[in-house]
C-alpha cells in the first residue's frame, strides 16, 4: 500500500509541474493568442497561407478559452452551466467569492477573546476538534436499556450476503457511482483521475482495496481526512459557527462506498418506517407530507376533549458525537455478523483528521468517537444509531406511557417521524406522554 501511495504522490507532483509548463498563465496565453488572431485579421493582404494560419490561431484561442472556463468551473465547485455562452467570469466570481467567504480572519477562543494570529487560530481549531472527537464515558446500564428495545432482524442469510468476499467488479461498480469532480482528499486526486485512467491504475487500486476489505489490512495510510470549515452564518466568529466537512481520499471512499452498497440492502430490515432519509424505496418527502397532515390536524382539531402537541428536536453535532461503543452494541443487537462489524470498526478506528486553515493543512486529531461528514458510510451508520431513539419511543408507546397522534380512529398512531438527525415528536398533551418523552430523551442522551 505504501508503494502505491508513493506512486500516486509522485504522479500528483508531476502533474502539477506539467500543468505549469503546459498551460502556464491562462490570462497571458489568451492575451497572446487574441493578439495573434487580431494581427492576422488586420493583415493588409490575405493569402491562402494567411487564412490557414488564422484558422489555426482561432482554434488555439478557442481551446485556451475552453480550458480556462473548465478550470474556473472546477475551482468554483458549481455543477451547472447557466447558458451556452462562456461562463468564465461567472465561475471566476463564484470561486473568488467562495474563497473569500471561506477565509477565516479571526476566531473566538473559549474565553471570548478574538484571536487573529495563524498560530492562535490553529490552536483553537486543534483544541476544538480534540474535544469534539474525544469519547465520553458510556453508561452501560443505559446502553442495556436501549438495546433491550431493539429487535434482532438480521438473519444468517443476510449476514452471508454481507460477508461474501468483495470482487474486482465491486470495486469498479463503486468507482462508477462516485461523483468525478468532488473535492479531493490529502492525496490531491479526484475520482475523475481514477475513472479516466483506470486502465493504468486499476490493478494497483484493486489490490489495495481488496486487501483492506478481504484480508483485513489496515487502512490508516489512506484514512487521513482533511477537515474544511464551511461557514454556517454570514458572520462566523466561533468554531460552532462552522460546519466541518471531511475531505477523504478516493481510495478510502472506494472502500467506504463498497460497504455502503451492501449495507443499503439490509438497512430497511433494521430501520423503522418512521425514518425516511437515505433509504431505498423511502422518500423524505413522504415524512414531510405526513408531518404536514399531523400538524394541520393539531391546529384545526375542533372536536373531542383531547389535545395534542408536536415537538421538534435538532441534535447538536449529532454526527460528531456518536459514541462508537453504542454503535457497535446496536449493530450487534440487530444481528450483524461480528466480521461485518469489525470491517466498519476498521473504517472508524483507523481514521485521523487534519484541518485546512486558509488553504494550509495543519493539526492532527485521532478521533475516538464521531462520524465524519463527507464519508459515504456516515449517514447510514447514523441511521443505525438513531434507531435506538426510535425503538425507545415505540417501547414507551407500546406499554401505554406515550400516546401518539391518530388522524382517524382506525389510523395508525404516530409518535415520531425522523429525518436523518432531525426529529418530530407527536403526542397527546398529557403528563404521561410528557414524562415518557423526557425519560426517553434522558436515556438516549446517556
TrEMBL record:
PROSITE patterns for this protein: RT_POL (PS50878)
Highest taxon, organism lineage: Eukaryota
Pfam (any one): RVT_1
Protein name: Reverse transcriptase domain-containing protein
Taxonomy of the source species: Eukaryota, Viridiplantae, Streptophyta, Embryophyta, Tracheophyta
Alphabetical UniProt keywords: Coiled coil
Organism of derivation: Cannabis sativa (Hemp)
All residue ranges annotated as the Reverse transcriptase domain in the record: 211-446
Coiled-coil segments: 23-50
